[in-house]
Amino acid sequence: MRKNILRYFALATAAAVVFGVLFGGRIGRWVKEERALASGAGQSDHSSHSMNDMPEMSTDQHTAHAGRSMPINAASSGERKVLYWYDPMHPAHKSDKPGTAPDCGMQLVPKYADDDMAMKTMPSGTVMIPQGKQQLIGMTTAVVQRQQVYRTIRAVGQLTADETKIAHVHLKVSGWIDKVYVDFEGQFVRKGQPLFTLYSPDLVATQREYLIAKRGKQALGDSPFPNVSQGADSLVQSARERLRLWDISDDQVKRLDETGEVSQTLTFYSPASGFVLDRKAFPQTAVNPDTDIYTIAGLSTIWATAEIYEYEVPYVHAGQRAQMELSYYPGKIYDGRVAFVYPTVDPQTRTVKVRLDFPNPKFALKPGMFSDVSLKVNYGEQIVVPQDAVLDSGDKQTVFVALADGHFEPREVKIGAKLE
After folding, report:
1. 38, 91, 166, 348: least buried by Cβ within 10 Å?
2. What is the C-alpha to C-alpha distance for residues 201 and 191, in angstroms, rounded to an integer?
3. pLDDT tens digits along 285-339
């Protein structure tokens, strides 16, 4: 048995020696190829693909792929060097590779090494906003323009009668109204038109004194004594002047001279042309100097009182042209002018009253109406920028000038009026 085992071992040893002699060179080459495959597989782990995803390829193919997965030198290729990637919405979040921000899912953008070098050559205070971030925040730019600038100040106006053309009819004596010729409000009267007749004991007595003084002058006018004739003449002049001061017209005194008869009632006439806004003249009514018998307003011109805000006051002045529209007459525009700017500010509304004059030849404009008033302000030729382009900190105003590659330079400016 033992002899058989030794015989088998000797045969196996001899077979191994023969196999090594015949295939030893081929086994060495095979081992080297397996090591090369293992080396190529280790390099491909640095790419974005896993080995399970890699297709089957030869050793030469693996080696070439591993070479492409290696990072390329930015200086040799001419590309910009990336320092890191960051979240444009939260610049504090940085990453050493591209991707998305973990908190908001925003795409990371690169930070290049030459950005800092470019900023050193920019003016002081210049900021850099990438194009992608400008789109995200809705940032826009506008061209600065020089143009003719106008502004329209709009306000609501209330129409009133022209106070300089309002007449109040008062008597200078007491008495009783007898007849009334203008007997309703709103009636149009002309200057010199009769209004009413009045009975006054004082007027009757003065007429009699005038007639007596006139007859005395005729009787004593040829007196050889100068003092007597002069005294008679002064009595006539005194009575005549008293009638005139009581608004008795020259025609009425002339009629008194011609007839020599005392009139129990005297007629009073309108002192101005216009519309009757108020009347207190009724037949058999007692009146005195305190009674405002008639109020007559001439409406050939009309006033419009508007209120503007106090910051608009510097742009409104007397003589400035104004326009007015009424909802009752659509499409009709009335041209007028600013007549007066009131000197006080309403403490409740912080507004200032402005009075405007408008011609009213056909009396279409009536007191009490409301209107839309517009005042056009001409600023001349000015440099204009959008209001949103100005950063106002309270003590200074700044705009940003767009430079190349998303750079913006701050410049301090002085702003004028804001236009709508």
Report:
1. 348
2. 27
3. 999 999 999 999 999 999 999 999 998 999 999 999 999 999 988 889 999 999 9
Between the alpha carbon of residue 130 and those of residues 137, 139, 276, 279, the distances in Å are 11, 11, 75, 79
User: For residue 147, how many other CB atoms are within 10 A of its CB?
Assistant: 9
214: left (phi over 0), alpha (psi -120 to 50) or beta: alpha
The rounded distance, in Å, linking the Cα atoms of 157 and 368 is: 10
Q: Are 63 and 80 in the same domain?
A: no
Report the amino acid identity of residue 3: K
pTM of the model: 0.59
Beta bridge partners of 100: 107
The answer on 102 and 41 residing in a single domain is no
Query: 419 lies in a domain?
Result: no
Structure tokens belonging to residue 172 = 């200078």
Query: 274 Cβ partners below 8 Å, 6+ apart?
Result: 165, 166, 167, 188, 189, 296, 297, 298, 299
Quick one: tokens of 30? 């095979």
The residue range of the domain holding 194 is 163-297
Looking at the structure of the chain, the number of domains it has is 3
Compute the residue count for the chain.
420
